[in-house]
């Protein structure tokens, strides 16, 4: 297979040839044609999130998904605000790290990586601590692949009159979300996840009334979400600083392909079918999942190390890479696991081919 392989990760992920092809043309950041593409993307993102342009806006931000999270956390929480962080994995803990470094007042309610965020415990804590102004959590925590109860958590947050910040990095575009109906104030994702673009920018769907209150809040010049919004509005698609033009064009193409596939609902079905056949075939080959089926997302699946003699993740990784597949190492400290993604330009036949290669590896090391 040489240097060409299928990325079975939670992003960056495998993209279509047509998404890659549109990056062959150069674009000027000031050009009206380019700014029109940016504005179209912003509008389509609201449509995907089921958010009206009357109440919501979308803001694009240079950098990876973490840049978008930091821009949001660092801009929307005022100096006297207090953030409640709900964490059941590494990416929830990353929000905690951001808050600590930025000097934002916070407290963390932590759960085990194998446990979904408990809505009742969140509700109880908000009753006990009225100083909390904002609540942040991860929808699909790719540390394990667990799917937290997004709608129920946001409902609890809004019952207490708090601002809801959702890290939907690995779920937006692949799992249907009702941003406006559920009352999400800020939803953050990035270009190289379920929309199936390439890495280079993040984006935030924002409640306009709330974002309008955030002038002068930002702890950073380049990661000022409010100022970025203002320039994009006033200059109709212009970014404050140099934007990743090729990545933006690729994302625009990826949005067209999402529409052609049948939208988020149809893509969700494909991802779910990918994940289900993966688990079935892996279990047939002697591998066990880390999470209970009811907690599992269709985005990425964590598998325990098997008790095969001579097994090592490194040897399996190299074996698979030579055959055109790249999987992900584990991210847990207390148990040995690895992860396999089911998103991107990946289809049932790819999952079947991967599992055949894994079975071949298992057979070879057993001889």
Automatic annotation (TrEMBL):
Keywords: Aminotransferase, Pyridoxal phosphate, Pyruvate, Transferase. It is an enzyme of class 2 (transferase). Its EC number is 2.6.1.37. InterPro entries: Aminotrans_V_dom, NH2EtPonate_pyrv_transaminase, PyrdxlP-dep_Trfase, PyrdxlP-dep_Trfase_major, PyrdxlP-dep_Trfase_small, SP_NH2Trfase/AEP_transaminase. It comes from the Bacteria. The keyword tRNA processing does not apply. It catalyses: (2-aminoethyl)phosphonate + pyruvate = phosphonoacetaldehyde + L-alanine. Homodimer. Belongs to the class-V pyridoxal-phosphate-dependent aminotransferase family. PhnW subfamily. Involved in phosphonate degradation. This is 2-aminoethylphosphonate--pyruvate transaminase. The gene is phnW.
């Amino acid at each position: 297979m040489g240097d060409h392989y299928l990325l079975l990760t939670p992003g960056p992920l495998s993209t279509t040839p047509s998404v890659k092809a549109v990056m062959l043309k150069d674009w000027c950041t000031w050009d009206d044609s380019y700014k029109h593409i940016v504005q179209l993307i912003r509008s389509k993102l609201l449509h995907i999130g089921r958010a009206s342009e009357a109440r919501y806006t979308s803001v694009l931000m240079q950098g990876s998904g973490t840049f978008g999270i930091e821009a949001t956390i660092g801009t929307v929480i005022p100096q006297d605000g207090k953030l409640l962080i709900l964490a059941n994995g590494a990416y929830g803990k990353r929000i905690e790290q951001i808050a600590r470094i930025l000097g934002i007042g916070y407290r963390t309610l932590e759960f085990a990586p194998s446990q979904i965020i408990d809505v009742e415990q969140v509700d109880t804590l908000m009753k006990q601590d009225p100083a909390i102004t904002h609540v942040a959590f991860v929808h699909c925590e790719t540390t394990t692949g667990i799917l937290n109860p997004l709608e129920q958590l946001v409902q609890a947050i809004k019952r207490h009159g708090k601002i809801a910040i959702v890290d939907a990095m690995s779920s937006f575009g692949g799992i249907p979300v009702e941003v406006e109906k559920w009352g999400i104030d800020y939803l953050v994702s990035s270009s190289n996840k379920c929309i199936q673009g390439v890495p280079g920018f993040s984006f935030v769907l924002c409640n306009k009334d709330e974002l309008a209150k955030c002038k002068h809040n930002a702890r950073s010049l380049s990661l000022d979400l409010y100022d970025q919004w203002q320039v994009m509005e006033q200059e109709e698609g212009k970014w404050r600083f140099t934007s990743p033009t090729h990545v933006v064009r690729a994302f625009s193409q990826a949005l067209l392909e999402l529409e052609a596939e049948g939208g988020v609902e149809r893509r969700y079905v494909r991802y779910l079918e990918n994940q289900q056949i993966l688990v079935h075939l892996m279990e047939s080959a002697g591998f066990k999942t880390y999470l209970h089926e009811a907690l599992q997302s269709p985005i990425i699946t964590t598998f325990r190390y098997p008790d095969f003699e001579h097994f090592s993740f490194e040897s399996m990784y190299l074996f698979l890479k030579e055959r055109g597949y790249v999987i992900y190492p584990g991210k847990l400290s207390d148990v040995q696991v690895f992860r396999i993604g089911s998103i991107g330009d990946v289809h049932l036949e790819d999952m079947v081919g991967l599992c055949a290669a894994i079975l071949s590896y298992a057979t070879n090391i057993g001889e």
